[in-house]
Amino acid sequence: MKLKTLMMGAVTASAVLVAGSALAADTIKIGSVLSITGPASFLGDPEDKTLKMYVEKINAEGGVNGKQLELVVYDDAGDANNAKTFATRLVEEDKVVAIVGGSTTGTTMAMIPVFEDAELPFISLAGAVVIIDPVKKWVFKTPHTDKMACQKIFEDMKAKGISKIGMISGTGGFGKSMQAQCKGVAPDYGIEVLADETYGPKDSDMTPQLTNIKGTAGLQAVLNPGFGQGPAIVTRNYKQLGIELPLYQSHGVASKSFIDLAADAAEGVRLPAAALLVADKLDDADPQKAVVTGYKAMYEEKSGQAVSTFGGHAFDGLFILTDAMKRAGSEEPAAVRDEIEKTTGFMGTAGVVNMSATDHLGLDLTAFRMLEIKGGDWMLAK
Amino acid sequence: MADFLQFAFSGLTVGAIYALVALGFTIIYNASDVVNFAQGEFVMIGGMVTVFAYAAGLPLPVAALLAVIVAVFVGLALEWLAIEPARDAPPVTLIIITIGASIFLRGLAQVVFDKQFHSLPAFSGDEPIRIGGAALLPQSFWVLGSAIVIFLALYAFFNHTLTGKAVLATAANRFAARLVGINTTFVMALSFAVSAAIGAIAGVLVTPITLTSYDVGTLLALKGFASAMLGGMGNPIGAVIGGLLVGLLEAFGAGYINSEYKDAIAFLVILGVLFVMPQGLFGRSHTERV
Fold this sequence. Notes:
The complex is a heterodimer of chains A (382) and B (290).
Chain A: H1 2-11, E1 27-34, H2 41-60, E2 68-75, H3 80-94, E3 98-101, H4 105-118, E4 122-124, E5 139-141, H5 146-159, E6 164-170, H6 173-185, E7 192-199, H7 207-214, E8 221-224, H8 230-240, E9 247-249, H9 256-262, E10 270-274, H10 289-303, H11 309-328, H12 333-341, E11 346-347, E12 352-353, E13 368-374, E14 377-380
Parallel strand pairs in A: 1-2, 1-3, 3-4, 4-5, 6-7, 6-8, 8-9
Antiparallel strand pairs in A: 10-13, 11-12, 13-14
Chain B: H1 2-32, H2 39-55, H3 60-83, H4 91-112, E1 129-131, E2 134-136, H5 138-160, H6 162-172, H7 174-179, H8 184-210, H9 216-231, H10 236-257, H11 262-276
Antiparallel strand pairs in B: 1-2
Helix pairs in contact in B: 1-5, 1-6, 1-8, 1-9, 1-10, 2-3, 2-4, 2-8, 2-9, 3-8, 5-6, 5-8, 6-8, 9-10, 9-11, 10-11
């Protein structure tokens, strides 16, 4: 992998042809531009692996509409300019019929005009709500938005009778966007943000900000939208200062390393996360259980890595697309687009997808589960 | 009052880290007029090697010692392979070489270690000590105490040992120092080794508080450099005071004014001081003999 990363740097892009039937006319060409290397490689790498392993699986099972899938993947290394160049190449040289990809909001937004001009259906794997709001005819996306994470957290707070909270947010892209979204939807849940502190993404001590939060009268809970090591330090400082209020983290910390880094301090922290993280702990009756355990087992066996929600977004995108192709009975872009928009009851790793002409995401809040950290592990919160 | 104490403790802990990095800058600067921007990478190596050696089963003190040794070797290699071949180049060129070395070390760390964040257990437990309503981690005492001990040792070294004076003499005039029989090659190597060791010790000490990853060095080098400039480049007392001041400015800025602008507040004050006192708080003014 490391050698591969180095080679990627030198070549800047790799076109990968799967299925070995590149010359056959009866293939369906699907394109993808992902951030496989570079700063967003934690997104693009599992997405790339997921797409390849499932395209292989679909082909082994007979393909779509009797035709083999052919996947063309380019690596934009997290750069929006690269993404746009590769998007153009997918349209003009590779002549793909649909695109599943775009690891970050930046690369996705750069590619949208290209695919809109070419009138090809494009399913993005990036987070921000701007991708589908306002609705664009040819653009869809699979991951839940940070606004939905805020709503899920506030729903949980409301149920517990919490109405006055403090926020401490990272100033990195993720924290900043979620801070704004949360403050936007807080009034809908009757929640007041009484303290609003921030910290830099590389800061190593947040006790001054937390001291101010501790000194704010009337708070009932604290919310920390952030990503990376920041939330782990916030959680440790929170315990150091002996703050007794419930601490809510975002889905940005939903990985095992957060628990390792925050150690004892993580006990009792609540956060919203995709069902994939707690696949084994879901009720057998849970309609999502089969999908998430199936994907988790396949991914972990083939890649040797722990499953992440990001690869799950690619899984959802690929199957929303192939299902639409099956319903349309062809791979003709306009027909496929119409069918993607009619997706209903699709059970993906992110939740149930019900798209419509006004909703090109189709997820509701059931996509998130509230988790609580207990005994150094995730538990479904009661 | 409790708030004030909490801000002060936070500032002193972070400031002590900056002070240790600034001390590392001071030593190499004293010996060679070079500002070594790879100083932050020594801190990273100290933390990362300890984390991985500890995870491999070595006891914490042994892992820490190993980390310091590795850092010293990296420091020596940096001096031999990058600085020494270019020693006749002007300081600006050498500084640029150290920036290149820092980027190289960061890249190497990504490959040798990984890109994740890591932590170490605190040396004396995680139970905070409460003083006047403020909470302080025992690890903070380790950081502060070590900064003081290292500072005193350096002070004694530079002012009361022949080798220390040889380092200062080399800095003042390398050619003249060589004429009076000082082995300037040895002095250069020594300063990089000592500087790397201090950086690595800082890395081991702060990892339980601040966590570590392959790229922690960048920001620390920047803050340490600002501290050294504020205190007066080349002065160990200045490095320590400068480091603590920058830490306190950040903590009080975040606590009393606005956490959004805490870095800006600290750098504004530094700019203000340097505007009035271009040599820093404790710096000697340079006189050029014509």
